[in-house]
Protein 1
Amino acid sequence: MSTAQNLKSELQILQGTLGSQVQKSSTLEQLDDIRHNALGKKGQLTQILKGLGNVSPDERKEIGALANSLKDEILALIDKREKELGEQYYASLTETEWIDTTIPPAPFPRSFYAGERAGHLHPVTLVQRRLEQIFTSMGFSVLDGPEVESDFYNFEALNFTEDHPAREMQDTFYTENGNLLRTHTSPVQVRAMQKLEAPFRVVVPGRVFRYEELDASHEHTFNQMEGMVIDRNVSVSHLLHLMQTLLAEIFERHVEVRLRPGYFPFVEPGFELDMQCLICGGDGCPVCKKTGWVEVLPCGLVHPNVIRAGGLDPAEFQGAAFGLGLTRLAMLKYGIEDIRHLQNAKVEFIEQFN
Ligand code: DAH
């Protein structure tokens, strides 16, 4: 067989095999492979045509034309198969991708909703909102104050002198210009006196910050609610009544309380208010450290220096104030054993407080 005949028959064989490969292909990827392997730069056709150098010019012409028509034919076949496969694919979609519009939808995550069905409130927020209801029903307003506070409002106006040791107990984070992250909500006492007209009653929920060694009961960030009543003839009995009412409302039962002296530079007299342990009913348990009492509420009558710093005359106006640990209260109410859960971003934790 001459070289020319050889080439011709090779081309015919290639035509045959490609034809059947294309017919048998079942994906667009397979078609691509066929095109690439047969007609690509280093494909089978090119390999065959390398033999052209050994044939006469006339034969070369003939074989060249044959190769071209083979190429056209195969490309046309591939095109046709491509269309067929495409149609098959789209037809199959009606089988594989149909939707049963009668199936009830899967529930969306809570975070999807706005308004009434929105995600959970944090336990601290739950307690805060409840307290806000209780206090507004008693004629209190709800105030807010800055979290980055000046030394004046956080300490000085509250009767902490510059070298007062109590500052040490409330160590915190300072900004470069000498401001600080407030260590308590008490600075808003002075802001309120400056801003509002006496007499008034306010509560101030908010975040506070301390430099703390973290453990199950200490966090660098926690929540308090400051309370303040400014009026004429305010006494300790007002304070006691207020505290008792709020605890009964929040725990939804009567709670026994007791007052102990407590020291804070901005109150005189100052107290620690304890409530009888709700876990053991006063018999003594781990929660109350076997004492039967749990410390919940520091409070007192506002120091005359603080009344003055607020621009009022202590001879005319007196104040009762308390600093409620919102975080602490939420932990007591919901039996949360570790404060670090509260700032944790775990959805599993928050989901429990529906
Ligand atoms: N600000 C105090 C603290 O964080 C708590 C406190 C004590 C607030 C007595 C008061 C108060 O209003 O009367 O430790």
Protein 2
Amino acid sequence: MLKLTNISFGYTSKEVLKNISFKAKNGDYIAIIGESGSGKSTLLEIIYGLLHIEKGTVHWNDEKLLGPNFRLIPGEDFMKYLPQDFDLMPYTTVEENIGKYISSQDKNKSKRIRELLKVVDMTEFSQTKVKNLSGGQKQRVAIAKVMAKEPEVLLLDEPFSHIDNFRKNILRRDLFNYLKSKNILCIVATHDTTDALSFADKILVIRNGKLIANSTPEKLYTNPKSAYIASFFDEINKIPLCEIDSKDTTKKSILLYPNQIKLTEKEGIKAKVVASYFKGKNYLIEAILNKSTLFFEHHVALEINQKIFLKFAKSEAK
Ligand code: ADP
Ligand code: MG
């Protein structure tokens, strides 16, 4: 179990992480999401022990981790950390890069390298020099490299940022199935929620250095507490209640995803079409109510300026 308690941290006198606490079980997959600059990378560096914290503690299985001021070489042995700007040895082969941390005494070394190459789907490049790989391929090698010694905890910072969508889904599935099978706790920092939604046991949302949500993907998606949280999952409509009911004076709004708004024949809330965007499976229609713009899904494109009626799914006002 990894346990963070009341962690606050600033590079200068300004705190960039504020009173962060959470727990993560062995074998869990935790996704940390937040906009850029919210503090995700800083949090991973604190967990790994690269940054000294004055306030708060990090424990791994009841042992307090000491941090860089108390260790000769920063970083914990049982953890591996893949920074955003991963570093590889450009003039050596993929195989040598992955094998760098596996002892040559290890009888299973070559088997282990083959296994990791398979997870990141780089088997055919094992003898290629890293400098000749694409950005996405380098990133896959970097992921394999941090897994080489089978850490107990793996910290990955935006691990799929250079990998194209075509490959991303397969890679994510293979990687997370592999980590689960080895019971490795994996914490991934990402601003892309598709990295998190299907695989994460928990999603932690940070905003301006504060942990504002810690829950399962399903709970966060179906009941987002704010437009900021919902916006990681989909386009989100924040509609003031007074736009729907002119008598409303509460100043509250409802949050609706585009698939929670439907076109109706006659009755409903009046709106006017502004644009239709082709999205493959359907169209995203931009429409205007009174003052607010909203987006909903529809199976065909609609004419610009067409008057329409809309029905909203039930939603809690916030
Ligand atoms: P994220 O990974 O979510 O994009 P970071 O953890 O990198 O966010 O940054 C959080 C905040 O800390 C930002 O405001 C950033 O400018 C600041 N910051 C990051 N690294 C440093 C540093 N080495 N020195 C000073 N400020 C930093
Ligand atoms: Mg970052």
